[in-house]
Design brief:
Elements (H helix, E strand, L loop, with lengths): L10 E2 L3 E2 L3 H4 L15 E4 L11 H9 L4 E2 H8 L3 H14 L2 E4 L11 H14 L1
Antiparallel strand pairs: 1-2, 3-4, 3-5
Helix pairs in contact: 2-4, 3-4
């Protein structure tokens, strides 16, 4: 039974999502752009040609007003990451969003000073 007060018309309290995830991406499982789960996505304010895109694209675009990761977008729209990446690639192709790869720390994870600092912090907490 659908709650009329609810904001999302594609969700039903009892049945869950009324539109299956891969229907949203027209059955596509591979995005046209490369994304990592930690890739940052930001709206460009351009790409007015995205009128052909559906309500899920609009929802994703609304989330991208501030930088947000692919994983966060997937969680907000309650879709698998693969479907989210397809939606995002449509938005990238239309120029509506831009992406930035995650920044990888430059330090060596086996750095002795870093490990000692972590150990010291753990001992302080106990």
């Amino acid at each position: 039974m659908r709650d009329p007060e609810r904001e999302d018309p594609y969700l039903d309290d009892d049945a869950g999502r009324l539109v299956r995830p891969y229907t949203v991406s027209n059955g596509r499982t591979r995005p046209t752009a490369a994304f990592d789960l930690l890739t940052l996505v930001m709206a460009t304010g351009r790409g007015r040609s995205h009128n052909y895109l559906g309500p899920d694209h609009s929802e994703v675009l609304g989330l991208c007003k501030n930088p947000i990761t692919v994983a966060e977008i997937a969680a907000h729209i309650k879709m698998p990451a693969a479907v989210t990446k397809v939606l995002l690639s449509d938005l990238v192709d239309s120029g509506a969003v831009t992406t930035r790869e995650p920044v990888v720390p430059r330090h060596d994870s086996t750095d002795r000073d870093l490990l000692e600092a972590v150990l010291h912090g753990l001992r302080k907490r106990l």
